[in-house]
Write a structure and sequence with these properties.
mainly beta; three-stranded antiparallel β-sheet
Length: 71
């Protein structure tokens, strides 16, 4: 967990309130993994998808946390 919330991993599906757009991460962190899955950081790449499978643009991390603590 970070000060901004839980750590995101590559299998997470971002959903945007009030729209039919969802996100899909395609490239996660190369060195940091949680249970073998890459985490999402500022270098991650993803795509937004509309209900009709068409791209709505890239996903980006707007705010990242410099330090994360694990249990």
């Amino acid at each position: 967990k970070t000060t901004y919330g839980p750590i995101g991993i590559i299998t997470d599906v971002p959903q945007f309130a009030g729209t039919t757009v969802i996100g899909m991460w395609t490239v996660g962190a190369s060195r940091v993994k949680v249970n073998g899955l890459p985490i999402i950081n500022t270098a991650s790449v993803g795509v937004g998808l509309n209900a009709v499978p068409s791209s709505t643009g890239p996903l980006t991390v707007a705010q990242a946390d410099d330090k994360v603590k694990g249990l």
